Amino acid sequence: MNQLDKLEAQSVYLLREAYREFKNLCMLWSVGKDSTVLLWLARKAFFGHVPIPLVHIDTHYKIPEMIRYRDAIALEWKLTMIYGENRAALDAKQTFPDGAIDRIACCKNLKTDALKNTLSGAWPRYRLNHTTRKYEVDKNTDPFTGVIVGARADEEGSRSKERYFSPRDKRSDWDVGDQPPEFWNQYKTDFPPGTHIRIHPLLDWTELNIWEYIQRENIPITDLYFDQGQGTRYRSLGCYPCTTAVESTAKNVDDVVSELRVGKFANIAERSGRAQDKEDGGGLETLRREGYM
Amino acid sequence: MSTSQKTDQMNIVIVGHVDHGKSTLIGRLLADTGSLPEGKLEQIKAMCEINSKPFEYAFLLDALKDERSQGITIDTARSFFKTQKRHYIIIDAPGHIEFLKNMITGAARAEAALLLIDANEGVKENSRRHGYMLSMLGIKQVIVLVNKMDLVYYDQGVYEKIVAEYTEFLTQINVTPKTFIPIAAREGDNIALKSTKMPWYTGGTVLTLIDEFEKEKEKDNQAFRMPVQDIYKFTEENDDRRIVAGTIETGSITVGTPVIFQPSGKKSAIKTIESFNTPIKSKATIGEAIGFTLTEELYIKPGELMCAQSELQPQVGTKFKANLFWLGKSPMIKDKKYKIKLGAARGNAYLADIVSVLDASSLESDAQKSKIDRHDVAECIIETIRPIAFDLNRDIESLGRFVIIDDYEIAGGGIITEKIGDESSIEKGVQRRNFTWTKSKISPEKRARNMGQRPCLLLIIGNQETEKYTLGVSLEEALFNQGKTVYFLGVSNMLLSLNRDARRRSTEDRDEHIRQIGEIAHIMADAGSIMISAISEIDDTEAQMIKSLVTPFDVKIIANGPTQLDTQKADLTIDPNTTVEDRVKTIIDYLNRLETFHPKEL
Questions:
Q1: What distance in Å separates the CA atoms of residue B518 and residue B459, rounded to the nearest whole number?
Q2: What is the CATH code of the structural domain delimited by B442-593?
Q3: ipTM over 0.95
Q4: Do domains B3-210 and B442-593 have the same CATH topology?
Q5: Domain extents for chain B?
C-alpha cells in the first residue's frame, strides 16, 4: 500500500467506527476540497452509499458557485442534505461585510453560532427534498451527538493537537489540555449524555495528499480552485469578503498537484488567503475552543 | 505513480524525562535539515543577543508556536523534516508524568522512537517508564540518545556508564535498542555532523542512523484476521448486497476461501470482495479497509473475528493473562464491571486477579497490591462475560491487545500473554451462587409434588416479531386457567424487543438484561413457578448463558419460527403461521409429554 492507500484505509476505518458507534451522526460539508474528499471517503466506506446526513452552514456570503455545486452533487449522489444559518444575525446585519462587527465576531455569528444551534437542533434545519429539488424545514430536531469534520492537522497549529475522536462538552468547549488517549486504533466512543464527539478522519492528510487523492479518484471539485483564465484561483474556500484568490495559472487538478509539489506554493501555508486567521494572535484557536471547525 | 507517493514517510516519536532536551533536539533537527522558514534562525539568534540571553534551540520551537496563527505548518505537536532518504514527522511526547496518556497517544502513532537521556542527570524515572511504555506499545525500533555530552566534557566514561545502566534496564524488559549515540543537541554534536569532540565514538550521527530505521514489514504471511467492524445492507437503488466490512489486520484472502467467524464459530466462504471506485478485486490483503459478501449469508454481529478456516485459529475464551498499564483517574479494582474493546469486539470484563503490580520506573514489583493505580503496570487476569476471540500478543500483535473503558474513558491498555482455563465467569458465578444459596427446608422435589408441576423457564424465541409476546401471555393465561403457578415476565419485552435500530444496540446492555432474566427465572423456579419469557434474536451464547444461570432448573426453548441458533437447539419448534390457540395447545401438549405436570416419579 502506498501513502494514499494507507490514508484512505485509515479514514474509512474511522468513518465506519463513527457510524457504528453514534446514532445521531452527521458530517459537515463546506463543499471545499477537504470535506468533499471526506464525502468521497464515506462513499468508499459504505460502498457507494452515504448513510450519514450532510450538514452545510450557509453564511450567505459563500461564493454563489459553491451553493450551485453543493446542490448538484447532493442531487446526483442522493445525499441527505441539510443546511443551517444564523438568520437573526443576517437580518440584524451583525456581519463583517455590513460593517457592524469585525471578522472574528462575524465568524462567530455566521459560522460558530449557526453551527452550534444547527447541530443541537435549536435553530431550524433545512433539508433537501429530492423530489421537488427544494429545501424545506426539517422536522427532525434531534441533536447530533457525533459530528464528522474534515479538519487536517497540517492546516494550522491548533488543529495539530486534535484527536481523531475528540469530545466537546455541553457548551461545545474543547479542553486542549486534557484529551483522551488514543492508541491501537481504539478511540473514545463512550461518552456521557450531553456531550458530543467530533470525529476527524482526515487528521493525517496534508494539502498535497488531498489533491493527489482528488487526482487519483477523479473526484468532482468546484471550479473555483482553478484558474479560469484571469491568472488567479482559490486555494482555500470561505466567505467571499474574507477569502482572496491567489495568483496562479493552475487550470486543473494536475496543475494544482504539481504547483503544490514543486511549484510556488510548496513552502507557503494554505490558509494564507484567510483573513480571519490574522486578525488576532491565535484567531483560529480562539474560535476553535468555542466550537469553530 | 507520482514521485511524492514514492517518497517514504516515517513517524518518529521523541521521548524521555522532562528537561532531558527534547525541544532542543527537535529545534536542532529542523535547523540542520533546512526545515525552518527562511531567516527564522537568524532572527531568534539576534533576539537572544539583544536580550543577552544564551541562544537555545528550544526558543525556536516557542517562536514557531507563537507564529502558528500565521499559518506556518510547524508546531510543538508535530514537526516535519526530510533527509535524503525520506520525510519524517516528529511527534513530540511530553516528558512529564502527568501527561503519560499524551505520551502514549503520541508514541502509538510512531513507527520508531528516539529516547533521550541527559548525560549529566543520568537515567531518571521517566527514562525507564518511557522505555517500558514503548515496549508495551509494540515500538521495537529505538535509538537511545545520551544528550548534553558537552556538560560532562564529552567524557567517554560517563557515556559508557549510562549505556551500561540503561542496557541492563532494557534487557529486563526485553528491549534491544538499535544503538546508543552520544550527542550534544545544543552544540550539534553527532546530530547532522559527526562530532570532533568525541573521537572515541565511531558510530553514525542521528540523521544517518534514523535513515536506517526500517519501515515495518507488512505481515501478510501471517494468518488472515479481520475484525468485523459492521455488517451493511444499504437497500437504496435496489442494492441487495449484505456486506461484512472491516480492516484486514494480518494476512490476505481470496474469493472462494472458506472462512470462519469467531467466537460464534459460524462458517461460510468469500463470494465477492467489495469496494467502491476500484477495479474488481479477487484478493484483499493486510491494511485494506474492505468488505466481503459470503456464499452463505450468516447472521453474525459486529465484533466477530473473521479468519480463514485452513489457517491458524485464534483463541476463544473468557479469561486471559495480560500485562496492563493503567491511566484511569480511579484505580482498577476487582469486582467492578468494565468495558473491554479488542479489535472490533466490545464486551464487559472484570479484573479477576492481580498477579503483581510493577512500578514501570523502577521495575520493582508488588505482589500484595489489590488494585492497579494510575500509571502502574500490572500482570493480571482479565475475565470477560461472553467468550471473546483473541490472539496471544506474541502470535498476532494487533489482536493480542485490548483497551479497558472506565467511566466513558479509555483507562487502560493491555497485551495478552496467555489464555487461561475455559470456565466462564457465568458458570463460576452460578457455582458460587448455588453453593452459597441458603437451602430451604422444603426440598425442590417436595415443592414440585405439592404444587403439581416441575418448575422451569419456557423461553419463546424467534427472529420474527410475529405475536411472540401475544403467544407468551396467551400461554400464561391457558396454564393459569388450568390451575398452574405460572408467570410471564413482561419486562423482557421492553428490554429486549427487536429494536428498530438493532445495529447499534449495545452488547453490554443486552448481556446485562440476559443475566437479569436468567437470575429472575432461577428465583422463580426455586419458588416452584413456571416462568415464561420471550426474547428476539437470541444467539447460541445467550441461550447458553441463560441455561447456565437457571441451573439446576430446566430451560425449554420454544422456537416460534426460524431462529439464529446454531450449536444450541430449540426444544420445540412451532409454526408461527398457525393460530395462537393452536400454538398454545402444541406447547401444552409438549409440556404434558414431558410430564411437567403431576410429576409421578417425584
A1: 10
A2: 3.40.50.300
A3: no
A4: yes
A5: 3-210, 225-308, 316-422, 442-593
Q: Cα distance from A33 to chain B (closest Cα, Å)?
A: 18
Same-domain check for residues A137 and A160: yes
Strands (E) located in B256-376: 258-262, 266-274, 283-285, 289-294, 305-308, 315-326, 338-342, 345-359, 364-366
For the domain covering B316-422, report its CATH number. Answer: 2.40.30.10
pLDDT (tens digit per residue) in A250-271: 999 999 998 888 777 766 666 5
**Domain spanning B3-210: which CATH class is it, in words?**
alpha beta
| CA R_g for chain A | 18
Inform me whether the pLDDT recorded for B128 exceeds 70.
Answer: yes
The pLDDT tens digits for B51-77 are 787 777 777 776 666 544 343 334 346
Minimal C-alpha gap between A253 and chain B (Å): 13
Q: Are B298 and B255 in contact (CB under 8 A)?
A: no
**CB neighbour class for B353 (10 Å; exposed up to 12, middle 13-18, buried from 19):** middle
- B96-134 per-residue burial string, b: 16 or more CB within 10 A, e: under 16: eeebbbbbbbbbbbbbbbbbbbbbeebbbebbbbbbbbb
User: In this prediction, what percent of chain A has a pLDDT beyond 90?
Assistant: 49
User: Quick check: A212 and B339 CB within 8 A?
Assistant: no
Across the interface, of A47, A160, A267, the residue whose CB is closest to B78 is A160
Main-chain dihedrals φ then ψ at residue B291, nearest 5 degrees? -145, 160
Catalytic residues of B: 536
Task: Show Cβ contacts of residue B38 under 8 Å, excluding neighbours closer than 6 positions.
Answer: none
Supply B179's cell numbers. Answer: 544503538
pLDDT digits (tens, 9 = 90+) for B275-325: 999 999 999 999 999 999 999 888 888 999 999 999 999 999 999 999 999
Domain shared by A52 and A146, yes or no: yes
CB-nearest partner of A13 from B75, B78, B289 = B289
